Amino acid sequence: MAYKSILAVVTTADLDRSALEGAIALTQAQDGHLEILALGIDHSTPGYYYAGTNALIEQATLERAREEAAEIEAAVRERLKGRQCRWASDSALAQIGTIQTLVGNRSRFCDLVVLPKPYGEDRGVAEEAVLEAALFAGNVPVLVLPEGTVLKRPEKVVLAWNQSAEALDAIRAALPLLQQASQANIVIIDPPRHGPDRSDPGGMLSQMLSRHGVRAEISVIAGTMPRTADVLARHCDDQQADLLVMGAYGHSRFREAIMGGATRDMLEAAKIPVFMSH
Predict the structure, then answer these.
(1) Residues 6 or more apart from 98 whose CB is under 8 A from it?
(2) 5-145 against 156-277: fold identical
(3) CA-to-CA distance for 71 and 126, rounded, in angstroms?
(4) 42 with 93: CB under 8 angstroms?
(5) Which pLDDT tens digit goes with each residue over 129-168?
(6) Among 103, 185, 212, 275, which residue's beta carbon has the most beta carbons within 10 A?
(7) What is the rounded distance in angstroms from the CA atom of residue 16 to the CA atom of residue 37?
(8) DSSP characters for 63-80?
């Protein structure tokens, strides 16, 4: 079991700020095929322009986005020249409001999407929109890599378990990585006293994983900090984990899907790769 079709969406010609190197390394480790989408973003909001100027400004911003996409793809092709990796690249341009459809359609037939961390210095709404599109419109698992991080094969993985369908989907989707890891740690924060597995928190999940050859231990910890994301981040640090697997939670509001507070908090706090599925 492996990820044979991996997608990387690149929105900047500064490839060191993208997750391209991480996507290449993982594709090589999985003996898969890497699809690269060089995405130029038109950040204009035509509704705010004065009457009579819309067409000219829209044309200018579209041309700039088209040039940006071509520049990104050229940088990608140069970076991959001579690399031992099966790959293909394509370029496209989109406005923020159309990223959901474009990236969702590109990602839905992939096994995994590899993206950079969407929050932090020099990050904007485009990176978050791409992540949301892959998770919610493409319905595909996403590996989020902090800048400069490469993950070929995880050694120790933390699994955030709260009995939700999203968490279980993420763990199932991460099985190819979990089977390669030396150890997995199932972490449960403040389990409910009247939950279905109250007598053995995480026991059934551990049993399922063991049948797939995954060695898993269970940690039941208290939520001693205001944000669950901070508790998880501290636990990952204590465990010296190099990967966190968790469910992605979102809800409809202004766009098709907006990252829920817990999901956003975790991505902001994470110092290690985060594997997510919705």
Answers:
(1) none
(2) yes
(3) 17
(4) yes
(5) 999 999 999 999 999 999 889 999 999 999 999 999 999 9
(6) 103
(7) 16
(8) HHHHHHHHHHHHHHHHHH
- Report the run of H or E that residue 226 belongs to, with start and end: none
Query: How far apart are the C-alpha atoms of 241 and 30, rounded to whole Å?
Result: 20
CATH of domain 5-145: 3.40.50.620
Place domain 156-277 in its CATH homologous superfamily.
HUPs (3.40.50.620)
Query: Over the stretch 170-207, which tens digit does the pLDDT of each residue have?
Result: 999 999 999 999 999 999 999 877 666 666 889 999 99
**Other C-beta atoms within 10 Å of 234: how many?**
14
**pLDDT at residue 259 greater than cutoff 90:** no
What pLDDT is attached to residue 61?
Answer: 80
Question: What are the b/e assignments for 47-57, b being 16+ CB within 10 Å?
Answer: eeeeeeeeeee
Judge whether residue 59 has pLDDT over 90: no
* Residue 45 tokens, joined: 């909001």
Here the tokens at position 26 are 């993982």
Task: Return the domain boundaries, the chain.
Answer: 5-145, 156-277
Whole-number mean pLDDT of the chain?
Answer: 88
Residue type present at position 35: E
User: Given the structure tokens 């997995």, which residue do they identify?
Assistant: 184
pTM above 0.85, yes or no: yes
Round to whole Å and give the CA distance between 138 and 104.
4
